[in-house]
């Protein structure tokens, strides 16, 4: 049984992000940096912090495995990066994996993010 407040599916987490106004997607730009097109911001790894990572597995299809990174910039703006893992990665851009690995991680509890 699901615990109160537990988010077990990608759609639930995405809805919660939307409800809190934290649904700003970050994507790799052509010049190898992370970009928030909506806010017209471009970031280097040292300007970001991964505050939560969610992993989701499809019930029967390995292609449904995904990872959602919640990322905060130096101004406190929170956005996300969504990717499939392993060989199913949806990021073909050169340097995506290296960029993500350079972002410092500060794992926060859901309560702190969504309160």
Can you walk me through this structure?
- The protein has 115 residues and is an alpha+beta fold.
- The protein contains three helices and seven strands.
- A four-stranded mixed beta sheet has the order 1-7-6-5, with no helix packed on it. Strands 2-3-4 form a three-stranded antiparallel beta sheet, with no helix packed on it.
- The chain is globular and about 35 Å long.
- The mean pLDDT is 83.
- This is Phosphoribosylpyrophosphate synthetase.
Which percent bin holds the helix content? 10-25%
Q: Supply the helix-strand structural class.
A: alpha+beta
Query: SSE order, as H and E?
Result: HEEEEEEEHH
Distinct helical segment count: 3
> Which regions contain 5 or more consecutive residues with pLDDT less than 50?
none
Number of strands: 7
Mean pLDDT: 83
Strand content: 25-35%
**N- to C-terminal distance:** 22 Å
Gyration radius over CA? 14 Å
Overall geometry comes to globular
The largest beta-sheet arranges its strands as 1-7-6-5
Biggest β-sheet description: 4 strands, mixed
Protein name: Phosphoribosylpyrophosphate synthetase
Organism: Chitinophaga rhizophila
């Amino acid at each position: 049984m699901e615990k109160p407040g537990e988010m077990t599916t990608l759609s639930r987490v995405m809805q919660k992000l939307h409800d809190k106004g934290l649904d700003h997607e970050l994507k790799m730009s052509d010049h190898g940096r992370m970009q928030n097109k909506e806010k017209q911001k471009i970031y280097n790894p040292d300007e970001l912090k991964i505050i939560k990572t969610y992993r989701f597995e499809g019930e029967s299809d390995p292609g449904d495995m995904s990872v959602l990174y919640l990322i905060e910039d130096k101004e406190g703006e929170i956005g996300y990066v969504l990717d499939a893992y392993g060989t199913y990665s949806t990021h073909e851009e050169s340097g995506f994996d290296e960029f993500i690995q350079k972002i410092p991680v500060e794992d926060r509890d859901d309560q702190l993010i969504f309160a």
